[in-house]
Design a protein that fits this description.
Distance between the termini: 87 Å
Helix content: 25-40%
Shape: elongated
Order of helices and strands: HHHHEHEHEHEEH
Number of strands: 5
Strand order of the largest sheet: 1-3-2-4-5
Radius of gyration: 28 Å
Strand content: 5-15%
Structural class: alpha/beta
Length: 248
């Protein structure tokens, strides 16, 4: 009967000639890659990616300022890309104002219109003391002027739904393809009374209404808060303006 042979093994993590022989014959496993090497490779990859994307958020004026630092052919490619983006924005910017809503027109002006473009509805407070609602009304006007390819609408919450609680205002409804894609109830889901244009931009990016590299964006969109906002209960778009008991 053959007796097992005990093969002497150094610390398997050591780089020794003996360990190399044992690894070659499968007696000890291959040494795992060094964490330091993995981290260094990740850093190099991230640095290369950042370099490749260094011009993505530059507008035409910023590209002109880089003429002495960048390859002229690359700059020209990005100039053409920006010009195409601006041309598309100009062609699709057909709204550029806040549209007041009446209940009989809700389906046509919002649900049906969202089949062609994003539609955002601000359900306002019926009270003049609701600071958040007043703030959002001002921001709504600025957003409508800035992003004319998105339709911004406004309507009093209790006129949209009888008995809609004022405590739920302002409410933001994001429509696309005839459905509510995102619903924000009061600004505390954003930044409360400190909500600004950047917060609404981030909301639109998360909803898919804007691309993150849109040249109209105020940069940088803050990343200190979550990139997506918590959801609330959502009713089917076709029933939203008709259901008077859901929010009582």
């Amino acid at each position: 009967m053959e007796m097992p042979v005990n093969v002497p093994i150094d610390d398997p993590n050591y780089d020794t000639e003996w360990n190399d022989i044992l690894r070659k014959h499968g007696i000890i496993p291959e040494k795992p890659p060094s964490p330091t090497t993995i981290i260094e490779e990740a850093i190099i990859k991230a640095r290369d990616q950042a370099h490749e994307n260094r011009l993505e958020d530059k507008d035409l004026d910023q590209l002109d300022e880089l003429e002495d630092d960048e390859d002229s052919e690359i700059l020209e490619q990005y100039r053409k890309k920006r010009m195409a983006e601006l041309s598309n924005i100009s062609r699709t910017s057909v709204f550029n104002q806040v549209y007041p809503l009446q209940k009989p027109d809700y389906s046509r002006e919002v649900t049906d219109a969202s089949k062609k473009s994003f539609v955002l509805v601000h359900l306002t407070s019926s009270l003049g003391t609701n600071v958040e609602s007043q703030l959002l009304t001002e921001l709504w006007r600025e957003m409508a002027r800035k992003f004319g390819d998105i339709k911004f609408c406004e309507m009093r919450g209790d006129m949209c739904i009888e008995g809609y609680p004022d405590k739920n205002t302002p409410t933001i409804l994001v429509y696309r393809d005839g459905d509510i894609k995102r619903q924000i109830v009061t600004l505390r889901e954003l930044a409360g009374t400190k909500t600004g244009i950047r917060d609404l931009q981030r909301l639109l990016i998360d909803a898919g209404a804007l691309e993150g590299n849109d040249s109209r964006l105020l940069h940088a969109v803050p990343s200190s808060q979550s990139s997506s906002f918590p959801g609330r209960k959502t009713m089917p778009a076709s029933n939203f303006a008709e259901d008077d008991d859901e929010w009582a």
